[in-house]
């Protein structure tokens, strides 16, 4: 829900800025509408766009890094559980109850994570 509120606020700010720009364009004196002023505004817009792209790129990289770390943790946990199950299998029928309990525990954890 906060993401939707943030995006709505950003949208309103952009629309308000555009409306103010249109209004100011009509009431500004002609000396403020010269080519040099437009060039400065274009450069400033380019800098803002570049900074926005940089921030978005860093956010995406951070999210991907976090996702990759979680995926590696899950892979490592799965590999350790498989190794534990194989070690318990080597103990023979005496460890079957422990293996069954391990399977139930993993199944309940997976169902809780999915819910």
Write the layout of secondary structure elements.
Blueprint: H1 2-27, H2 35-90, H3 96-114
Question: Termini separation (Å)?
Answer: 19 Å
Order of helices and strands: HHH
Q: How large is the radius of gyration? A: 29 Å
Global mean pLDDT: 90
Shape: rod-shaped
Please state the structural category: mainly alpha
Number of helices: 3
Low-pLDDT segments, ≥5 res: none
> What is the number of beta strands?
0
Largest sheet: number of strands, sense, barrel closure: none
Helix content: over 70%
Which percent band covers the strand fraction? under 5%
In short:
With 115 residues, the chain is mostly helical. Helix content is 88%, strand content 0%.
What this model shows, in words?
The protein has 115 residues and is an all-alpha fold. It is 88% helix and 0% strand.
């Amino acid at each position: 829900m906060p993401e939707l509120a943030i995006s709505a606020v950003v949208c309103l700010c952009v629309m308000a800025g555009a409306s103010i720009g249109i209004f100011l364009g009509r009431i500004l004196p002609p000396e403020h509408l010269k080519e040099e002023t437009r060039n400065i505004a274009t450069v400033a817009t380019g800098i803002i766009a570049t900074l926005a792209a940089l921030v978005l790129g860093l956010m995406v990289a951070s999210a991907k890094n976090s996702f990759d770390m979680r995926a590696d943790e899950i892979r490592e946990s799965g590999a350790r559980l498989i190794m534990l199950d194989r070690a318990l299998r080597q103990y023979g029928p005496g460890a079957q109850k422990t293996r069954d309990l391990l399977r139930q525990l993993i199944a309940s954890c997976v169902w809780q994570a999915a819910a």
